[in-house]
Design a protein that fits this description.
The protein has about 250 residues and is of the alpha/beta class. It is built from 10 helices and 7 strands. Strands 3-2-1-4-5-7-6 form a 7-stranded mixed sheet, sandwiched between helices. Strand 1, helix 3 and strand 2 form a beta-alpha-beta unit. The chain is globular. Bound molecules: S-adenosylmethionine. S-adenosylmethionine binds next to helix 2 and helix 3.
Length: about 250
């Protein structure tokens, strides 16, 4: 897959940062000494952690060079390093691992989360948020377009599966957690029109579908997808559309 585009991702910065704020608000720590923002992206989530914990030794980690460059521009005082969540192990002095909207991209994340939590010292916190939207029209329709077009063979295996049930996360993390808080929030983001919904997913969930396509194929895919999105997300009385967006939150304290 091509590298992430910070500019495309940040088109909806307010909406995308809202779950990071909601997640951070539930972290039961007053003064973490060392905090890690795993999958820091362009630094929007790192900025929130820095504001809440100005005395913490904070590092943002990400596997995307483009995202890290953007994050360094944004927060020159903070530290940002290249890392892969699939193999990263937190040091025993890390009090907070914050991971907003990243683990859904990490293969086998159900095994990764207990691996990270179990490496933390007593009292330390793993805070995770992941989109739980594979059953939403945005994601069902991208799979339908992928299956219906001349690109079907090329895109045969790109769809991500749905998140496992909450009980599965509970059972995986409970052996390593003194305190475990899991909840869902369904956001209804007010966007200008159906085209804005397409722009939103272009920055995230649509990337594996359109990155492998040649430019003309990509244009045809997006036109077909937009037509289906327009039908699935009718305009409100004021012309806006509501992007329904369920997200899963997990705050586990060692
Ligand atoms: C949707 S963005 C989230 C950015 C930010 N945390 C936020 O709250 O908006 C997901 C980020 O996870 C990063 N990422 C994906 N897979 C990763 C991996 N295996 N290791 C580290 N970072 C990864 C991507 O590069 C991207 O910057």
């Amino acid at each position: 897959m091509a590298d992430w585009s910070p500019a495309t991702y940040l088109k909806f910065e307010d909406e995308r940062t809202r779950p990071a704020r909601d997640l951070l608000a539930q972290v039961p720590l007053d003064r973490p000494r060392r905090a890690v923002d795993m999958g820091c992206g362009p630094g929007n989530s790192t900025e929130l952690i820095a504001a809440r914990y100005p005395d913490a030794d904070l590092v943002g980690l990400d596997s995307s060079p483009a995202m890290l460059a953007e994050a360094r521009n944004r927060l020159p005082a903070a530290r940002f390093e290249l890392a892969d969540a699939a193999s990263w192990v937190p040091g025993g002095d890390v009090d907070l691992v914050f991971a907003n909207a990243i683990y859904q991209w990490v293969p086998g994340h159900l095994a990764q989360l207990p691996r990270v939590l179990s490496a933390l010292a007593p009292g330390a916190v793993l805070a995770v948020q992941m989109p739980d939207n594979m059953a939403e029209p945005t994601h069902i329709l991208m799979q339908e377009v992928a299956a219906d077009g001349p690109w079907a063979e090329k895109l045969r295996d790109v769809a991500r599966g749905p998140l496992p049930p909450v009980l599965t996360y509970y059972d995986a993390l409970r052996p390593f957690a003194g305190r475990l808080d899991i909840w869902h929030t369904v956001y209804n983001h007010v966007l200008d029109d159906a085209a804005a919904i397409v722009e939103w997913v272009k920055g995230t969930g649509l990337r594996p579908f359109i990155d492998p396509l040649a430019p003309e194929e990509r244009a045809a895919f997006l036109a077909d997808y937009l037509a289906r999105i327009e039908k699935a997300y009718p305009a409100a009385a004021d012309g806006k559309v509501l992007l329904r967006f369920p997200r899963l939150f997990v705050v586990a304290q060692r």
